[in-house]
Amino acid sequence: GIAGLSPLACHWDGQQVRTRGGALRQFTEVAPPGQPPLALAREGRHFKLVRAEGVLNDILRLERRDPVWIDMEDSRWFGSPQGEPLDRPVLCHNRRAGAVNAVLWPLPDQHAIGLPGFDPASPPDDIPFDEKEDRLVWRGMISGSEMSPGVRPRSASHSWLARLSEAATPAAREAAWDGLCRTNRMDFIRRFQGHPDMDVGIVMAHAFRAYAQDPLLAPYCRPRMTRAQMRRFRYQLCLTGYDHGSNFIPALDSHSVLLAEDDGWQVFYSGRFRPWQHFIPVARHLTDLEEKLAWARAHPEDCRAMSQAARAEAAHLRDPTARVRLMQLILDGLAQAR
Fold first, then answer.
1. Which of the residues 93, 111, 238, 332 has the least number of beta carbons within 10 Å of its own beta carbon?
2. pTM to 2 decimals?
């Protein structure tokens, strides 16, 4: 069925866009002179409908009108043993490894050609591995969820942040803080900030910037780093958030070596990058991070080889011709399955 689809899921029949329940969504189509048709959602739409709009425009630029189901929500569990089954293919930007009928498509507002990590005009890393600072770096938002021993996590970090800001009593505030500290990224920061071999810190996203002033959270916040500043370090880290860490490609496409948490999530490029060939895998919840960092320091030749292989593979992701061919193959596969 489609019970596992989010409320923002869409079905496009090649002409009209509808909700998962069949109601018409407010999308229109315009045709600029000499250009392919352009799909536009209503003004003020949710940004995850803008993602669906982006997928439709990807398809229209291919001069196709293949009917598709689209769900560009984050952390899609459908099609996996831990989620609802899917009885039809659905385009999504993330899935659990092995999920059935969850078809990966580039996320328009993150993976499009020209965005960070996917920009053909982006200057390459000009700092050789040996000249980088021999430490690990990470900056990121407190996304992710409360850790659990099972596959599926518990409460999301944004819900604990909201409870922290809304707490009316010291006891409620303490409970909210304790909950936030049980989330994966907050747990990581509290364990490793101040570690002599690491430069790690929280950078709150713009919509959450007020939380950086909270006296409990402020000590863990650090200034945002540019990509060039991150490249000063020999080791970069990719952490799971609500799903696959968004800095995977920008961090990997450098002369640094990437340490990436094994989180079970996949995006459209995941099959191209293999542990120990392109990056160093780190156990879930970073239980062996110090061990893996020590291994990297003891094996510089292996790290240089991984970094070189990763850069060569990442170059294909910013090739516009390769991207068009990828999308065509996905749509061709869906057409054959209908």
1. 332
2. 0.93
